[in-house]
Amino acid sequence: MPPFIVYFNQGQSEAAQIGLSFAEIWALEGGTTPSIGLFKAVREATPQGTPIMVMIRPRVGDFFYTDAELQVMREDVRIFKAAGADGVVIGILQKDGRIDVTRTKILAAEAAPLQVCFHRAVDMSSQDILSAHLDVSSIPHVTRMLTSGQAPTATTPAALPSLRMLLRTASRMPSSAKVLVGSGINANTVGPLLAELLPCGLREIHLSGGEWVPSEMEFRREGMSMGVGGEADWAIWRTSEEKVREVREVVDRVWSEFAESQENK
Fold first, then answer.
1. Which residues contact residue 198 at a Cβ distance below 8 angstroms, ignoring those fewer than 6 apart?
2. Which of 33, 106, 227, 242 gets the highest tally of CB atoms within 10 A of its CB?
3. What is 4-263's CATH superfamily?
């Protein structure tokens, strides 16, 4: 079976028709908690049987949260759990940058028995990737960990040594969180990434598959901004069915070649 494609969904569900293992929903600005209205719309439009994961992140910025923010996150978990989400995506760090195991346990327990993914807060951790993965794996109910190998993107040469080491180590741990590799993945980069990491045990990848689409607004007041600023104020982020399909095709081809090579050994 080819690696799963776990994909960010900001409201466009067309790409979810292309054999995805999961759809993940988040609000665009920095990857924050989406509205319940967006969740319900995606739930209705996504093919039956496709699990939907929901980002739980109350704000942009760092991953050290106040007690009040933690309570907001707990309530968001309860709401999406009751609404039918299949899992949540969370991540909390301590002030010193270490994985906050205690607080993450609180959210993971609230989410149970849903799936729980620890997101790329791990890439901002002060711990090395193996130590961070060990802490994440110690948290009950956490099923996977998303990482770029603590590099800006998973597809840069600097990320590969960490990802190779992490995948090989995780494959020998009977109760470890699955390693979900993401950041910078597209049709041009996914082939070389799989070629490097499939032999190490990679089985899940994560991508946005999106692009900025020009706004249809005709009137644009000069000097005013109500969003991210600049020309991006007059554009809308949309998941591209074509981009996701292109990645799917490369994944299927590379996986088939890899599986055949394993059978011939």
1. 3, 254, 255, 258
2. 33
3. Copper homeostasis (CutC) domain (3.20.20.380)
C-alpha–C-alpha distance, residues 152 and 139, integer Å: 26
Structure-token match 């005709």, residue found: 218
User: Please, which contacts does 72-78 make with residues 24 or more away whose CB atoms are closer than 8 Å?
Assistant: 73/107, 74/106, 74/107, 74/110, 76/33, 77/107, 77/110, 77/111, 78/110
Distance CA 56, CA 89 (A): 6
Domain ranges in the chain are 4-263
263 burial level (CB within 10 Å; 0-12, 13-18, 19+): exposed
Torsion of the alpha carbons at 6, 9, 13 and 15, rounded to the nearest 10: -50
Q: Where are the alpha helices (DSSP H) in 17-86?
A: 36-45, 67-83
Going by C-alpha positions, the residue among 180, 61, 54 that lies closest to residue 114 is: 54
Question: DSSP per residue over 149-166, as a string?
Answer: SSSS-TTSGGGHHHHHHH
